[in-house]
Write a structure and sequence with these properties.
Distance between the termini: 5 Å
Structural class: alpha+beta
Mean pLDDT: 96
Oligomer: single chain
CATH class: Mainly Beta
Number of domains: 1
Order of helices and strands: HEEEEHEEHEE
Largest sheet: 8 strands, antiparallel
């Protein structure tokens, strides 16, 4: 689905923009840290935040990350996961890419099952 060049890009420190659809059908876009593994993009955050409520309602999301002329975008069905093992994995992946996040007992993970990839030609398989 993505190339080795894309995997390398996704190991570098770049923030992304998460886009979801709000109750009023407006696009809700916020900066986030993302990780990618085995066709799933993960975003950690706090239970009940607007981005997570939007995903619970619509079941879809997209993320885009860019650095100069290099960029990649993922979209697909999304869900909020509260399972402690899934959250621990998401935190582990986030820590490897960015830094250890602060302790958050309300942490959950948004998982996007990637069904479409757009981006720089070198990033698409």
């Amino acid at each position: 689905m993505i190339t080795d060049a894309a995997r390398e890009f996704l190991s570098e420190y770049h923030l992304a923009t998460l886009s979801t659809t709000g109750r009023d059908d407006r696009i809700h876009s916020v900066p986030v840290g993302i990780t990618y593994r085995d066709g799933v993009v993960r975003v950690i955050g706090t239970r009940g935040s607007q981005k997570f409520r939007n995903v619970e309602r619509t079941g879809r999301a997209s993320v885009n990350t860019v650095d100069g002329g290099r960029w990649i975008s993922f979209e697909g069905p999304a869900r909020i996961v509260e399972d402690p093992d899934a959250v621990a994995l998401a935190v582990e992946l986030y820590t490897a890419r960015y830094r250890a996040p602060s302790v958050n007992p309300e942490r959950v993970v948004l998982e996007i099952e990637v069904e479409r990839v757009l981006g720089s030609p070198a990033f698409r398989a």
